[in-house]
Design goal:
The complex is a heterodimer of chains A (about 190) and B (about 180).
Chain A: E1 7-8, E2 11-12, H1 15-23, H2 27-49, H3 52-68, H4 79-98, H5 119-137, H6 140-152, H7 156-163, H8 167-187
Antiparallel strand pairs in A: 1-2
Helix pairs in contact in A: 1-2, 2-3, 2-4, 2-6, 3-4, 4-7, 5-8, 6-8, 7-8
Chain B: H1 8-16, H2 24-79, H3 86-94, H4 100-107, H5 114-119, H6 121-130, H7 139-151, H8 155-168, H9 176-182
The chains are: A mainly alpha (about 190), B mainly alpha (about 180).
Chain lengths: ~190, ~180
Amino acid sequence: MTCPARKLGGVEAADEDLMLAYRQGDTGAFETLYARHKGPLYRFVLRSVRERGLAEELYQEIWMRVIEARGRYGVQAKFTTWLYTIAHNRLTDHWRRRGLHLVELAGHDAPAPAADEPESRVQGRQSLQRFAAALAALPAAQREAFLMHEESGMSVADIAAATGVGEEAAKSRVRYALAKLREAMADG
Amino acid sequence: MADRDRDERVSERYRALGREEPRRALDETILAAARRRRLRWAVPVSIAAVVVLAVGVTLRVQLEQPRQAEEVALAPKVMEAPAPAPRAAALESRAPAAAAPPIAARKLEAPAGAAADRAEPARRAGVAVGRISPAPDTPEQWLERIGKLRDAGKAREADESLAEFSKRYPDYRMSAVMRARVAPR
């Protein structure tokens, strides 16, 4: 994750301090915070819904909720946990409306290999395609837990807090996801 | 996440999927919204602060009027401090306190003018708030000040002040003692 330096009192500012500074009106603090989290959050959303236009719409809505909620922000949890809680809630709303259609395998489009592409590269591409397909095929809750873990480095406890489940359930989701993804890699 | 739950091979393969980032236009939309929300919040607060300040100043001026009137009445006493140096006396004669009677008189539109004050709020606000001048004193206080100017030998100022007083209060009936005190000697 790219973490632009912004110092408060000589040390790099924590996310929570930046959010509190933004709450006080420091828009520069928000810019730093945004730069730190934009990539991971965007990929989290994109790989959850697998449709770029929709991902952009949801991604923007999540940040708008952060902006709207800044006045209520208090440091009761890590900023990352708070951010992904908002993302989780927005995605849950989305899936509820769509009936979980996006969990299906169909629609994963990867470019066809060129005729003169070396076989090793073709195999690598196919292997990556299988991995992507396996990720897309994961149950939404498992994929969500895996993506939070991979993209933002969240712990099991943080994932549990962001998704509103117990730690055992969160741990189990991550482990099931990892097992299925390993399996997809072994097939290749 | 505990280390035993990590799988570096899976992580590596996952990272190979790509590091997509949001489009710049999307970034700019969100950052602009963050700045706009800040401004939208700041403007009403600024307006509210100005309103509160204005009301506070107005209330304070109104509440402090009686005290300021006392201070104005005391001003000539300061001028008449014992044995002032000639230069200091000259400076004092040009000080605002010396001109206080006319200013006060202009503001005192009617005797016991509380009701009249309320009848002309705009004009009075211009004087009371805009100029932050002392509150008007009573005719008796004004005459007392003229008397003290006489005592101090400031005949010209006393004459001017008395003339101003007569214009302001043409029907005022002063006692013989007071007349003797303020009349040219």
